Structures
1.
Amino acid sequence: MRKGNLMFLQNLLVLMLLCAGAFGQSSVHNGKEHPRLYAGKAEREEILQKIKSQEWANESWEKLLGEIAPYVERHQSDPEWITSRLAMYWEEGERYTQCYIKGQDWDYGEGNAPVPTVRLPGMRKWNDFQNVPLKDRIPYNESGDMLGVSRSSGDKTPVLVPYKESGHMIRNNNKEILQLAEKSAFAYYLTKEEKYAKFSADILWTWLLGTYYMKPPLDPEESTGGLGGYAPGGIMGYYDYEVIHDDRQVPAATTYDFVHDYMLANPHEHLSQLDMNVTDLAGDVFKRFIEIGLVRGGAKGNWNVNRYRHVLISMLVLEEDEYYNDGKGMEHYIPYYTEISTAFHAPLPKILENYNKETGLWPESPGYASGMIGALLEMALPLYQAGINTLGENPMIQKAAMANLGWLDARGNLVVFGDMRGGPLNYEVFERLLTYYTWEGITDEAKKVATVINKGIASDQYDRSEVDWRRIILNQPINTTENTLPYHRAAYSPFHRHMIMRNGNDDENGMMFTLYGGMHGSHLSSNGLAWQFYGNGYALAPDGAAYESYWTPDMGYYSGPVASNTIVQGYSKGEITVNAMDPMVPSGQFYNESVTSEFCSFADVSADEKRRLIAMIRTSPTSGYYLDIFRSDLAENDYIHHNLGNRMTLSDTGDTPITLENSSIENPPHEAYSFFENTRKARYADDFKATWTIDSVAPALNVDMWMMGQEGRELFVMDAPPTTLRPDVTPGQVNKAPQKTPTLLVRQKGNNASESPFVAVFETYKKGENSLKAVSTIQSTDRFVALEVGSDNTRQLIHNAIDKEVYETPAGSVFQGIFGVVSLKNDELTYLYLGKGGQIGYGGYHLAAIEGEVSASLTIENGIVAYSADKPVMIKLPGGDKKEFSAGKNIRIHPSK
């Protein structure tokens, strides 16, 4: 078994190489051998054996060979085909050596190098286009105009995108070609076939020399926050406007590592003019990326981390310090990640201080948080190969990786809130932990992370056999078939103002909702007091996240309350107060410790003038529903609900369609209303139903919504922008761009929604499997709401109050508290549930707090009565006296033990 302190990189070698005809002199290389980043010469046979014995590794290897084969074979007779598709300043006289930036975009270039230089991206911002396939790209493209197809439009006809409007197309073009070189270099490492080395080396020579002759861009007006060049400050990298996107160095460095010896023995003819060998040339280029990377992007947040994930690889392929005239080699630079702080960057110990010690969460949205721990683990393995164990020395990295599980839905997708598009968990995080635990022989932890990987495979979220040479090297055999993830009923992060509640965690029948407040900054959004709910493992009532980029107009829609399920007016960001939640997450923790009821979960949250209660009621192992009671102390409120669906219908409670007329939305409270299309309206004050149908899958999925009527209501049905750009976060890719999202807006005017709240019940189900039969209002006052929700052979009496009064309802229940449920089956009581309250009673059964407020349940099953309570309670059974009972979980009280 490999150990960090036994890595081959600790063995110092002296390579005496004569590069015939290159320099007319011998080149003495005193340093560590190549390759070294992920594996060395000693590991080659071990990797070949893995490919023979592990099906996933063999499939990945065969796919890799199949992917590069057409390019490598063509290269034998047409070596210019691939290099001509690199984005370069090709034209003689315009092979710029100095570029200038203005307004964070390319302005102009100066100078003329003896070889073509690598083209700088034309602009910082993204655009809507992606490159056409490599075979269709323009060879020796002198203008930099790129052929692209729209990402969001249904029209996939290629268009010519001007250089200065090309977004990330230049960057992605060159990265794609360098990654082909990287894969081919790995193939050379394993097969020793020279055709792979030549393909990789020819690409890398073109890129290295073209980069060597280019000085770092200058920004005289400091639009990127600094002057550019080598001056510290600002956000610009060496070959990108954002140092965190200076990523072409990574495939270049890994390619160099695998084919270093080949390139040393087969030098480019231009090196004789420079009096360099490839080690000198590459060292010069990679050190520029490092030097600039360490003084750009700032010392805080994800920029600090993402800058390291690129420059660290460049650091690790350098030779030892004494090889270079300036004394700056690998040993010099690595401490700038592991220990040395400056005004411009913060090393690993300070990075880890960003993580919440109790929750293990990074202080940004889930996508960024997952990316940050992924970056730390991505860097940990090559460092481990170099004898530096950042994982064993920093247990927070492991804790933070496991904390990501708290943000997963049943399918393994990250919840969407803030600046992120969702999608599967980064399973590389757990692969890298599995690698580390296997190397270190930590079998219990290895089994835990293997379970997560198995879950991703089982739910088709992760494929171990995808083409990835790093996985072939690093991934380890999995010695367990377990794929059931442990889950918690509740998770809450006060920093993110975000809570998750679950009941079950399987794709088919698990229930889950999220409730959260708004925040500006940390890649979170000013989205108001918003919620999402799930069915069949998908967020069926989602936050929208199909924005093109941070700079495009649609970001104004997706980053605010109009793309969320909330009330648009009033509160959009700021602190929230958790009035009650059950299961409760104790202070200083991420998860709940105990569960009061197997059937009921809820959270009641206030923010400024808003107060929202979301509850989840389980009616059977395969059915249940969600409750939303939303109060807003404003005279006019727009309650907006986005739901996945190919179509939507609106009807009264008797299923008669409500007539809608084409109409605009008068006096829109937010400028993002301009994104709504096909708007129709009805004035309607009674109870109503809405149904969304997803028939792009079979069986179809449905969401039914019942809403209690209020005076002053207008109902708007409209087409909102797409929900997602991703193909994997909605069933059947419904509402993926360019499809619109069917959305309901309920406007209430002249009727304060604190006293006349929005009250809705939602059920998700497969076609023909709905369980709810009727929803009706039992009682409604300005401080209290009671509903009856009936399903197949059960019904629940739901209670919610915002005061401490005792309410006796016409249905025969008594209630005092924030939330309470009386559940009946065939008209016989099955349970009482009290969520942070004083009392609840029905039919001779009574459950009450002894002092203050209590969360408690009383269940009756087959004549056995049991209770759970977080504080002492008073319980009365039919025909009996009141008795006091201490706090406890599932304690049987009748028949007495």
2.
Amino acid sequence: MHLYNDYIKEIEERKGQGLHPKPIDSADLLSEIILQIKDVNSPNRKDCLNFFIYNTLPGTTSAAGKKAYFLKDIILGKEIVNEITPDFAFELLSHMKGGTSIEVLLDLALGNDIAIAKQAADVLKTQVYLYDADTARLKEAYTNGNATATAILESYAKAEFFTKLPEIAEEIKVVTFIAGEGDISTDLLSPGNQAHSRSDRELHGKCMITPQAQQEIQALQAQHPDKSVMLIAEKGTMGVGSSRMSGVNNVALWTGKQASPYIPFVNIAPIVGGTNGISPIFLTTVDVTGGIGIDLKNWVKKTDDNGELVRDENGETVLEQVYSVATGTVLTINTKTKKLYNGDQELIDISRSFTPQKIEFIKAGGSYAIVFGKKIQTFACKVLGIDIPTVFAPSKEVSNPGQGLTAVEKIFNKNAVGNTPGKVLHAGSDVRVEVNIVGSQDTTGLMTAQELESMAAKVISPIVDGAYQSGCHTASVWDKKAQANIPKLMQFMNDFGLITARDPKGVYHAMTDVIHKVLNDITIDDWAIIIGGDSHTRMSKGVAFGADSGTVALALATGEASMPIPESVKVTFKGTMKSYMDFRDVVHATQAQMLHKFGGENVFQGRIIEVHIGTLTADQAFTFTDWSAEMKAKASICISEDDTLIESLEIAKGRIQIMIDKGMDNATKVLQGLINKANKRIEEIKTGDKPALRPDANAKYYAEVEIDLDIINEPMIADPDVNNKDVSKRYTHDTIRPLSFYGGTKKVDLGFIGSCMVHKGDMKILAQMLKNIEKQEGKVEFKAPLVVAPPTYNIVDELKAEGDWEVLQKYSGFEFDDNAPKGAARTEYENMLYLERPGCNLCMGNQEKASKGDTVMATSTRLFQGRVVEDSAEKKGESLLSSTPVVVLSTVLGRTPSIEEYKKAVEGINLTKFAPSHKLLVG
């Protein structure tokens, strides 16, 4: 009983942290628990019954398998447990969702005991997580004339697993809680520096917002026991930055309702709101849990008597309150009228929160149940040879005769399944699409594994071209937390069928390359759809969507995703880049010019940015698509010239081959298959059979923006504006300032070059600048630390071959060693160059961090409060985002450079250049 004794010891340790027993996923531990349940004289028997009934994880965990078989023995009378009657055993099986529980229920339903078979069938009729092996058994039994199988299939055909569920309440009473003012990053709901605990839902829940906020939520619940607490982003958007299932899980844990009395710490149905709505990828995660996301619009832009926008002394639009949602306000959501009320006063129409599809998600307790339910209904009708009855709300199909297609509309039409045959679909249509590439990252991967277990999936869908599990978010520090979590994750994902950054067998060298860079390389089709467990899954080939860990699991298990076709904003360029400018400045200027053109309205939010980049290869163009997450876009698509796309595909082939040479391919030769597909795509482009993806000339866009390169005269910096008196305007990514704003005097405490926003060219720029500065000044002396984390090992190898790495080594005071990785995060920095291991490093914020209160100049994407740098008691930490040359020079000077100093330092250096295409990039 050593496992049980260890478990009891762990329980006592958790009590000291205010935690309940950790849910059980181990068959070996549950076996010891079952032995004590069977022993009526065991002093631990009562506790073991509770562990077995209420604290065992369902799905495909090994513990769930052990539990299901024991329940089967109870139902068959092979085991007698007075506290678990056969009826109760069936109830417990009904809450186990899939995997072995379905196998057991099928055994019983297709068995010879008629009474047991009927009871098992009644439970099966409520289940939807069936896979090929399960449905094959049903089909065979039906073919052989089994009446129980026929009854089950007839129930599935009618979708009784859905129709017999209770309807959603007509009125939902909520009490408001302002979680923050301005945009609320998912880092507030699930901090990156607590990523190691995400798979321990109760423990991770304690990091949401602050302990004080948690107490305030509990106080509201005590005062309003009949109401749900609605978390709100006042004067901002809820859930920006990433999808982060753990963020929604935490909100549900504190404010939602328990999914099942027999599944610990899995809550559903959270209600969230934002003045400017919910970030698109976060809203998808809310749907996964059957929650409600509301665009409150409780602050609007103030206008004068002439209808003109009123601006403050800084030229910012002034907002005025339409209605209050202050903490403690009681509101009513009416799901029939689809309106929000304060008492009898109608506040706003919320129809977008209650589309027919969203109502189904709420009724079913989440979107997964609907996805799997539709599949099982289709299967049953096919076996029975009948038409599919109309049960679920028909997918909205928008088709505008005579209207061309944007690039994303073309991709969705190509990959759509289950829509009306031959019908051309435009933006606004609800579409099920096949997914080509899937990515799982390491700080959410453990949750993705849990989701796969909970939906009883055992192997990757055969229609997925390729999938990758990264190790980049835990690359910089191989500490005890990483050592405990990452090998287990890699083993699970490798067994499931993914290409993994670490080899569970230890044959090939661990690769900590940034996931987005790897996904960008293994995407070998510009018509592909990519789903990845990170908001920066935004490839420069195809269209990629950052997603929560659950949606990633669904894509891995089914090869599908469901979403509306988004609207698009077309971005083109004119003019000429200044020789001393870097492409990163063009990216920042795109956001600034867009906001200026539309009076502060972010037309990118929730839409596809169709950027006509034309002449930049995938590596360089990724800088734009990556940043589109910070523009709050749903995704971005690069429109390329044919020759540029071919060049990008050849680069991708070379990098995939390196992965093969390292021994990373699996038994099904996924990586070789990607090279074969790339060769085919290149041939299609060369022959003209299928040119590079282009929109139609008569496509319709929500907006069109032309970026003027001529007016970009100096480097641009995204500033968190930490001291803005309007709290809602801090940490928004929308404050884009020219270098001269800082007058060459702003102190910089640390520089960071790395994360997914840089490419090989940036590393070469760094080397060239150091040589330039030494030539001009006689030496290179850092007045602030400079942390450099190359995105990939490929880049390091190429820099070594080309002589640039030797330059970086010359000036560095630290160089990573894979044979002796750091065991603890760095807390203090010297004024020198640090060559860190490839990976996310400071950008992730879960391992390395700047010193509290530092001003950091970084190439990364994250300027959220506490992410790269936390506040000190004396000063707010700030992460300013800029181009590589600005970061380098800021650390050499210890301050922001003047424009003259900048121009001198980059003289003669080959910066990332961009010239707009002169070709008409339409199909």
